[in-house]
Amino acid sequence: MRGGNSVWVNGFVLHRRPYQETSFLVDMFTHELGKIRCVARGMRSAKSDRKSVLQPFQSVTCELSGNGELKSVKSAEINAKGYNLQHTALFCGMYLNELINRCLPANIPCPDLFDQYQRALSHLHASLEINGTLHAAQEAALRVFELSLLNELGFLPDISVDAHSQEALFATMDYVFIAEEGMLLKQWYPHLRAVPGQWVINMLNEEWDPNSLKTAKWITRQALQPLLGNKPLKSRELFVSK
């Protein structure tokens, strides 16, 4: 929604960092504009009430002003109860935020992906901590979002078919994954790691078990590599340190 020199957005803070003496640079993922960067002027001041509003995993409505790409936060308010993520669920949320910041181009609306992000946060919020370790519900939330992000960016080939024959995958055949092409029969690439077609089919149907989760991670890691380059994700170090 726009009014005069202002634009209203609904979204979530991905990251913020100090800017000048009393301000923050804020990266947001919004329903209306996609990923944006804005300046929250004076927010670091002790008198500012926006510091507690512009927090990760808190759904907010912001009024932005300015004609350039780097807009200013004119007002910000909470528009829904936030997602209270703790322990490994918090690490997962931080991973999602970093992934969006690293991979998604700025200022391109992608409302479907925004909905998937909210859905992932909801699943993480509902997930229970089990012995302080990442568990299936949390892994599934990450894998579903990764696949949605790759599809949004056009970096995921059709993995429901054999890339050469364009026939549907056979549950009893083994396939390799090549990021630039898709799923291919192992017999043509015996030196590459392969998985049963049934595992890929279960993954596509979101029938999550240890094998389909492992397959999804195997595929998304390869497909995300061109987007991430050689710079490691800081949030992944949190899981390693656990």
Polypeptide structure, described:
This protein has 242 residues and is of the alpha+beta class. It folds into 2 domains: 2-78, Nucleic acid-binding proteins (OB fold (Dihydrolipoamide Acetyltransferase, E2P), Beta Barrel); 87-241, de novo design (two linked rop proteins) (Up-down Bundle). Helix content is 36%, strand content 23%. The protein has 6 helices and 9 strands; from the N terminus they run E-E-E-E-E-E-H-H-H-E-E-E-H-H-H. It has helices spanning 87-103, 111-126, 136-153, 197-204, 210-228, 234-241; strands at 2-3, 6-19, 23-30, 34-40, 60-65, 71-78, 174-178, 182-185, 195-196. Strands 2-3-4-6-5 form a 5-stranded mixed beta barrel. Strand 7 (174-178) and strand 8 form a beta hairpin. Helix 1 runs antiparallel to helix 2 (111-126) and helix 1 runs parallel beside helix 3 (136-153). The longest helix has 19 residues, at 210-228. The radius of gyration is 20 Å and the shape is elongated. The model has no long low-confidence stretch (mean pLDDT 90).
CATH H level of the largest domain: which superfamily? Recombination protein O, C-terminal domain
Uncertain ranges: none
Can you tell me the CATH architecture of the largest domain?
A: Up-down Bundle
Write down the overall geometry. Answer: elongated
Total number of domains = 2
Number of strands: 9
Radius of gyration using CA atoms only:
20 Å
- CATH level 3 topology of the largest domain: de novo design (two linked rop proteins)
What separation lies between the terminal Cα atoms? 43 Å
Query: What structural category characterises the helix and strand content?
Result: alpha+beta
Output the CATH class name of the largest domain.
Answer: Mainly Alpha
- Tally of helical segments: 6
